[in-house]
Amino acid sequence: MEQRPPNAEAGARVLVVDDDPTVAEIVTGYLDRAGYVVDRAGDGPDALARAAAHWPDLVVLDLMLPGMDGLEVCRRMRGQGPVPVIMLTARGDEDDRILGLEVGADDYVTKPFSPRELVLRVESVLRRTRPAPAAASGLLRAAGLAVDPAARRATKNGTELALTIREFDLLSFFLRHPGRAFSREELMREVWGWDFGDLSTVTVHVRRLRGKVEDDPARPRIVQTVWGVGYRFDPAAGSGEE
Questions:
Q1: Cα→Cα distances 132→2, 155, 172, Å
Q2: 14 pLDDT band (50/70/90 cuts)?
Q3: Residue 39 near residue 54 (C-beta atoms within 8 A)
Q4: pLDDT over threshold 90, residue 222
Q5: Where residue 137 falls among pLDDT bands split at 50, 70, 90?
């Protein structure tokens, strides 16, 4: 029997959605060998039906699907419940990548891609869904926000926030480091765990997070822009603007 790698999430179910059977077969094979339970779908309606039958722990979702594109599939899945999404796109256009992030994708990979890299991205995103270690699981509070790392639950003035995995991690990081300015490179390294990558990923996630934690996202007071540096979390909710 094949030995499963110890770093794979035991029994984690991954739904691969791609209308190219060759791509889907290669991705499925690599994920299967990495220890994941893999479902496949060739279009949006099939993906939604399979997700309803067996809710996935993560979705690898092609942006360019026939009929219903990946953006709409992502929106509909997110309407049914939280699920991490890694978007695949055949284009190098930054607008496509940003669109995927704007609808809540946690990560994206541009075709052509290395299947090994995709497996690493899957592992990275799923790792973020694990309960926080006891030493880091204390409740974090500031500026009307409360974050419970162990339960992966965040509230604003007592109302629960619907955050993606990366948004939750970003907010938790800010609450753990109040008043300190971080560059986008530092945030990518500390929150995403990447030493390099497209920095627009950080920009989009900060914008999405502001839309959920700020009273007026157009004039952010909590997550402030530090010109020439990056971003700073201000627990006193001081003034700031984009």
A1: 30, 17, 11
A2: very high
A3: yes
A4: yes
A5: low
Do the beta carbons of residue 217 and residue 206 sit within 8 Å? Answer: no
Helix (H, G, I), strand (E, B) or coil at 27: helix
Residue 236: the pLDDT is 81
Two tokens, residue 181:
């300015």
Give residue 162's Cα distance to chain centre. 12
**C-alpha distances in Å from residue 122, one per residue of 58, 93, 190:** 8, 22, 17
Sign (positive/negative) of CA torsion 18, 20, 21, 25? Answer: negative
pTM: 0.67
C-alpha 100 chain-centroid distance: 10
What's the CA gap between 148 and 78, in Å, rounded? Answer: 21
Cβ(47)–Cβ(67) under 8 Å?
no
